[in-house]
Amino acid sequence: MLCFFGNNLLRNYMNRLDDRSYFFDQGIYFECQSCGGCCTGDPGSIYVERDDISRIARYLDFPVSHLIEKYLHPHKNSYSILEDSDGRCLFYEDAGCRIYPVRPNQCSTYPFWFENLRSLKEWRRVSRECPGIGSGSSYSKEQVLEMVRSNMDTILKSRITSNKKYQSY
Ligand code: SF4
Predict the structure, then answer these.
(1) Residue whose CA lies nearest to ligand 1 atom number 2
(2) 3-44 pLDDT tens trace
(3) Sheet of 72-75, strand order
(4) Higher-scoring residue by pLDDT: 35, 160
(5) What is the C-alpha to C-alpha distance for residues 48 and 74, in angstroms, rounded to an integer?
(6) Which of ligand 1's atoms lies nearest the C-alpha of 131?
(7) From the CB of residue 67, how many other CB atoms can be counted at a distance below 10 Å?
(8) How many Cβ atoms from other residues are within 10 Å of residue 64's Cβ?
(9) pLDDT digits (tens, 9 = 90+) for 60-85
(10) What is the rounded distance in angstroms from the CA atom of residue 104 to the CA atom of residue 123?
(11) Number of alpha carbons in the 13 Å side-chain half-sphere of residue 42
(12) How does pLDDT run across 94-146, given as a tens digit for each residue?
């Protein structure tokens, strides 16, 4: 989960999200093309919130312990999904994402992340990596900001120091 902003700055941006105009005031067209570009490539972290873990385990019909042992590794105050040596998420297969309906917030809000939307220049850069941008249905400014806010919230949650840590699952 890549985010360059410290907690205070992130909260500050989050509280003022509705107070300004954006290059996407008239909406953004997006529809995932299932190319797998954001599920493969350079290694990264795929933060999984505590609630996601039980949902994913239930969806796969795995015990939580099996999910943790085979697919996750400790990351921040929870876990991240393991990747293979090429940077491919272990849940990404030829047919697509194996846990698509219960994928973590970091995945479901992509590409509507603050760091991608903070300027038209950044958005154009992401557009070159994500062929879904510019296709499909229009997302209103409000819908986009809802996803941005949700992703920011997850980033902040991931940074909360918890004395329960991952051993409590
Ligand atoms: S890079 Fe874009 S189009 Fe490709 S899988 Fe990710 S969100 Fe979908």
Answers:
(1) 130
(2) 778 888 889 888 889 888 999 999 999 999 999 999 998 888
(3) 47-48, 78-81, 72-75
(4) 35
(5) 10
(6) 3
(7) 22
(8) 14
(9) 999 999 999 999 999 888 999 999 99
(10) 22
(11) 4
(12) 889 999 999 999 999 999 999 999 899 999 999 999 999 999 999 999 999 99
Whose CA is closest to 153, among 81, 30, 51? 51
Q: How many residues can be counted in the chain? A: 169
Q: CA of 162: how far to CAs of 77, 91, 144, 158, in Å?
A: 6, 27, 30, 10
Ligand 1 centre to CA of 113 (Å) is 13
Mutation test of ligand 1: which of 92, 110, 128, 151 has the most ligand atoms closer than 8 Å to its C-beta?
110
Taking the C-alpha atoms of residue 98 and residue 155, their distance in angstroms, rounded to an integer, is 23
- Which residue ranges have their beta carbon within 6 Å of ligand 1? 32-38, 110-111, 130-132
